[in-house]
């Protein structure tokens, strides 16, 4: 059995790298809608936007955030270990993991598929090519995969908010901004640029609040519980 000092160091290290993952993911989720170019995607202006470096960079930021989120939840689970929040946080890790796995192929189509179509449209001046974007996004399989991913993210948000509230180790409301951002992730796609950018800010706030708690709130875990008598 590791000595308590080693266990405490390991626990603290887990919280630190999880906090970094959550903080970075939150910043990237704010950058995603802020960097993304917005225009009528049935026109050559839209083709130029989707062919741009900003289009690729913004979507890659979102993809990286989705990868970092489950990693951050590993540390959050360590922070609520030994409390009633452990079980919903374990479920949240699984829904976030599977949600990210389903979202990433769709975003790959957005980054690489739509960019290739748009570059050809710009080169030829043929806006009819842009109708292929609807196939990439809204055919039955990609639309279903994306919808399931967003529902899994919504479940993640609810479970994390519930876990933090039940843990008794921080303010009960602390997980609510994170939860609200994930629950609203699918609906915000139907709003205009200001709403999408505001949602990105909400996501950043939610992720950063949890990251700050992990770094400064001294969440207790197994490492800080006394060892059983020999």
From TrEMBL:
The entry's keywords: Membrane, Transmembrane, Transmembrane helix
Superkingdom, taxonomy of origin: Bacteria
Transmembrane segments: 12-35, 55-76, 88-108, 140-164, 171-191, 197-215
Presence of keyword Repeat: no
Keyword GTP-binding tagged: no
Protein name stated in the entry: DUF4386 family protein
